[in-house]
Write a structure and sequence with these properties.
about 180 residues; about 0% helix; three-stranded antiparallel β-sheet
């Protein structure tokens, strides 16, 4: 599924009222990448017009192109968003250059909702007073967490005395399997 040498994701922040108003960023995962700004590989985020939404990845600088360090199992990339105009917005991913076995979630830290981008765009309500460092992208190559109704389900799995037990953080439910 990957057309490029290195996995990459393109994201666009789009106004739902004026779809022509959008801002895009690019994240690439590269063996020689760095999680901080590198002048020869990354691009700093430039300010848009007041009426435009702004989206950027957060490293030691705000970036519109971020060549991130390649990762083994999972990675988080903080994102910033701002707009002088309150209203509904979308974050639309282009996953064409992300391997199909990867899972990519967007976490909204204001609403505490998680969104699987395999389900399409993420819609959210922006208020002018919202903090800019609102989102986190979560990338999983294997074993992504379970998400139900936009909430992350934490589970612990352990083995003791030939018994496999799974416990869930949001309930007192427990599943046990005995080996005979």
């Amino acid at each position: 599924k990957t057309n490029s040498i290195n996995p990459q994701i393109k994201l666009a922040a789009i106004s739902s009222v004026q779809p022509g108003l959008k801002d895009e960023i690019l994240l690439e995962f590269h063996p020689l990448g760095n999680d901080n700004f590198e002048g020869d590989k990354d691009a700093l985020k430039l300010r848009n017009a007041e009426t435009m939404p702004m989206l950027w990845s957060i490293a030691d600088e705000n970036l519109s192109i971020n060549r991130c360090k390649e990762f083994e199992v999972e990675k988080q990339v903080p994102l910033g968003f701002s707009s002088a105009t309150a209203g509904n917005y979308f974050i639309a991913p282009n996953l064409d250059d992300i391997p199909s076995h990867w899972t990519v979630y967007l976490e909204d830290q204001i609403t505490n909702k998680w969104h699987d981008f395999k389900g399409g765009d993420f819609q959210f309500l922006h208020q002018a007073q919202n903090r800019a460092n609102r989102f986190v992208l979560h990338f999983y190559k294997t074993n992504p967490p379970k998400i139900e109704d936009g909430k992350k389900i934490n589970a612990w799995v352990f083995v003791a005395d030939e018994q496999l037990t799974v416990r869930f953080s949001n309930t007192s439910d427990r599943v046990s399997v005995f080996v005979s």
